[in-house]
Amino acid sequence: MKLNILKGEVVLQTIVSLVGLLYIISDYTGTTQGTEFFIVLFFVGVSNLLGFLIRISVMASKFNRYYFFGVILFFLLIFLMAAQNADSRIDYIIYFMGTGGVLFNLYYLAYGFYLITKQNKTKKKDNFFS
Question: What is the DSSP string of 92-109?
Answer without folding.
Answer: HHHHHHHHHHHHHHHHHH
